[in-house]
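Morning!

This is the sequence you dropped in the shared folder:
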Amino acid sequence: MDLQSGFHIIKILHYIISTTFLIIAIALIYRSVIGIIREYDYTFFDKILSSSFIINLYFQLIFGLILFSNLGSSLGYDYVSADGTVSAVTKRFWPIEHIVLMIFALLIANLGFIFSNKSKESKAKHKKVLIYYSLSILLIAYSLGAIYLF
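The structure's back. Tokens below.
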């Protein structure tokens, strides 16, 4: 296996984990909103979803750092044309911004996990999961959209 195929395998794994994360995030937000509105108990399944959310973020961080390492350096940028150079210059800091925002998103999600586990009432647990995990998801969405917006 050469370096480029290893890079593509890690990239595919990163995409699969990201898709799984999206499914877990949607389920978690839905259950939190319903739990707050209908005052459902914070069940073992909710705790499993919260743990899966955090674990998934850690896996994304690990695979993202591997992708950020020198594995992809052989792919390079297109510096042949002026448009390619401008595009490369405007996007050159995106990987660093993305990693920093992902670390903040992971930190916020961890705080939400800790605070929700320390809460006594189910409604308070659902609220903390909804607030902190939604902030984390918004940071992730901004980080992913920044490459296309700026």
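Headline: The chain has a mean pLDDT of 84.

More detail when I'm at my desk.
O.
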